[in-house]
Design goal:
By secondary structure, the chain is of the alpha+beta class. It contains four helices and six strands.
Length: 172
Amino acid sequence: MTTITHEYRSHNCGELEAGNVGDQVRLSGWVHRIRDHGGLLFIDLRDHHGLVQCVVEPDESEFSKAENIHAEWVVRINGPVVARSAETINKDLPTGHIEVRIEQLEVLSKSEELPLPIFGEPDYPEDTRLKYRFLDLRRETIHGNIVKRSKIISSMRSRMVEQGLWNIKHRS
C-alpha cells in the first residue's frame, strides 16, 4: 500500500500500472475529458507525464462534484487503483490496464470555456494558435515535440561534455 505524504500527488498520471492495483493514490492534473456512460462518470486526468482514467459511480459522495467539473479545470483526486475488466482495457494508453476510483475530488482551479480545445488535434488558423499559445502548448503533439527537443539538446550537451567540449557564452 502507498502512503500519501505529498499535498498534490503520490504518483504522476502516466506512471500507474497493473502493479499499483490496490494502492491508495493522490493525483493532480487537468481534466482532459469527461464521459458519462450510463451513470458512471469517467474523467481522463492529464499532467505533464501522461493520462489516467478516473471513475466515480452515481451512489458515491463525490459524484455531484464530478458532474459539475469541466475540461481544463485543475483537480486533485484520491482513491484506490483498480484493474480494468478485460473488455475495458485500453491498449493505446500506457495506463490503460487500470483506473482510479474517485473517493475524494477537490477542484483546485476552475477554467473558463477555452477559445480552442486541448483535446485532439484541431486545425486552427496560425494567428489563433499564436494568440493562445499557452493553450496550444498543452496539446499532445506540441507538448511531445517540446519534450523531444529538450531530450535531444540534453543528449547533445552530455556527449559534448564527455568529449571535453564546453559551452561558454560570450557577452558583448
